[in-house]
Input
Amino acid sequence: MDMQTSLLDRLFDAGHLIDTGIDGLYGRGGGFEAVITGFERLIDAHAPADAKPEVIRFPPGMNRAHFEGSGYMKSFPQLAGTVHSFCGCELDHMNLLQCMAEGEDWTQGQQATDVVLTPAACYPLYPVIARRGPLPEGGGLFDLQSYCFRHEPSKDPARMQLFRMREFVRMGTPEDVMAFRADWMERGQKLIEAVGLDPELDTANDPFFGRAGKMMGNSQREQKLKFELLIPVTSQANKTACLSFNYHQDHFGHTWGLSTADGETAHTACVGFGLERIALALFARHGLDTDAWPASIREALWG
Ligand code: AMP
Ligand code: ZN
Output
């Protein structure tokens, strides 16, 4: 049995994750949720006191037109999840039930709805902020959290299909958003150290699809548009990306017509916390029994 499977099995046995029969789709136990709640409070405590972001919570589905406009299908078609529904007549319904009863594919007639699953917490944000008109003086700062879907079934407990991402998003001038990202790269490391984990900052790239995608990934890395904080979860050697720091340049500003108070195309950046991955890193480091975690860690999370 490999390391990853054994951590997953131990998480099931401890009741931290609940097996649904689908890789990467798990229920969460109370102890697991308490770690996430505690860590989110710690994120709030480590955020700059004067920042005052606008708090917005979107559901884990987004407007399909906004998803299409974002260009996600150009870059990551392999990860996207769309919501389909039955829209047929009674005869179609009878055929569907018959297919189901015979163990045949009953999904062929399902039709796309106007909802797709949110791929990253910040995707629903840009078009709705752009709709408000130009950003106020000083730009915008937002606090988001959402379940996100990525079709990447895996036995690695750190690679889920539905997981939560907490994000802060900054919109404004290139200088402002770069300063925001640099600030969070430092704060993120301190935050992770405060719970007894060893973070390693590295440049990174997103898993762009196909051969052209390889070039996009290389270019993203060369331009240092994405950094990640890597933390051991299932392996000391192959660490897991638990926080991401992304600079989108004017991609979303341009896509959605988002502008600064001066009428320039807005630049954007986001910092994303993979909440399940951070909880898993804590369980891997401190053990599955949170009552037995070092007092300093318990104090930091729940003190
Ligand atoms: P990304 O948009 O890929 O940078 O993702 C933001 C954060 O979400 C990452 O830093 C991870 O911590 C987390 N994350 C990404 N993919 C997954 C996944 N499949 N399962 C759990 N967490 C993930
Ligand atoms: Zn983001």
